[in-house]
Amino acid sequence: MARKKPIAVFDIDGTIFRSSLLIEFNALLVQKGIFPASATRTVEAVRQAWINRQGSYQAYIDTIVRLYLRDIKGTSVRRLRQITQQVIQEQKHKVYVFTRDLIRKLRKSHQLAIISFSPSEVVEEFRREYRFGIAQGIAYEHKKGKYTGRVMPGTVFDKKAILLELVERHGLSLKGSTGVGDTETDADFLHLVENPIAFNPNQKLYRIARREKWPIVVERKDVMYHL
After folding, report:
1. What is the pLDDT of residues 65-113, one digit of tens each?
2. pLDDT of 1 higher than 70
3. How far apart are CA 186 and CA 180, in angstroms?
4. I need a labelling partner for 15 at 20 to 30 A (CA). Which of 48, 117, 135, 203 fits?
5. What are phi and psi of 165, to 5 degrees?
6. Strand partners, 216
7. 171 contacts: CB under 8 Å, gap ≥ 6
8. Residues near 82 by Cβ (< 8 Å), separated by ≥ 6?
9. pLDDT at position 211
10. SS3 sequence, the chain?
11. CA 1 to CA 12: how far, in whole Å?
């Protein structure tokens, strides 16, 4: 019986990509006039609160997700997918050195996968650009070429469950597996892999990593700190 290939699973935002795909995608949709300019003012208010340490990053992201759901309704699927190509081409070099090099190393021995809560269209474009074998994002429902403003029925917001399903579907193995994430939502899948790495972790993931004795890596400018 052939030996199953191990999986190497990565979060994208803040782990590979030095920003958020959803933030950049949303901003470009506003710039192109597909989403209303009023969304920018709302986002900027919560962004400033986060920058000034008066609000959380999660509140910032949750606001963008809420506006995305509101504004995507009635948007052309074809037009939105064109914008995904543009945002990846504009942002594709904005990646961390540590994870970029780790991906290159693991490509030889592992099946590379990305799991993200950004829209599946932009996650898929990211997958193609960086030659990942598997990608899982959040799929938004569309009918007759237009988005309905709803998430696809049956969508799972649990990265542990998503990873287990991907391993089963693609005939992969968790033996020898690697996982990299930056927030507590990634802890779900980091508990499953043999080689978990907390990369630039937020406080909640940092505490989990310390308790579990996971490697912690921080990249600041051109220096990487292994804690």
Report:
1. 788 888 999 999 999 999 999 999 999 899 999 999 999 999 999 999 9
2. no
3. 8
4. 48
5. -70, -40
6. 198
7. 4
8. none
9. 97
10. CCCCCEEEEECCECCCECCCHHHHHHHHHHHCCCCCCHHHHHHHHHHHHHHCCCCCHHHHHHHHHHHHHHHHCCCEHHHHHHHHHHHHHHHCCCECHHHHHHHHHHCCCCEEEEEEEEEHHHHHHHHHHHCCCEEEEECEEEECCEEEEEECCCCCCCHHHHHHHHHHHCCCEEEEEEEEECCHHHHHHHCCCCEEEEECCCHHHHHHHHHHCCCEEEEECCEEEEC
11. 34
- Among 125, 103, 127, 108, which Cα is nearest to 179's? 103
Which pair of tokens denotes residue 166? 């991907």
Task: Compute the residue count for the chain.
Answer: 227
Q: Cα(200)–Cα(141) distance, rounded to whole angstroms?
A: 33
Q: How far apart are the first and last CA of the chain?
A: 39
112: tokens are 């590379």
Among 222, 186, 227, 213, smallest CA distance to 101 is for 222
Alpha-carbon distance of 7 to 190, in angstroms, equals 12
Tokens of 77: 């699927």
Cβ-based neighbours of 102, under 8 Å, separated by 6 or more: 178, 180
Residue written as tokens 């630039």?
200
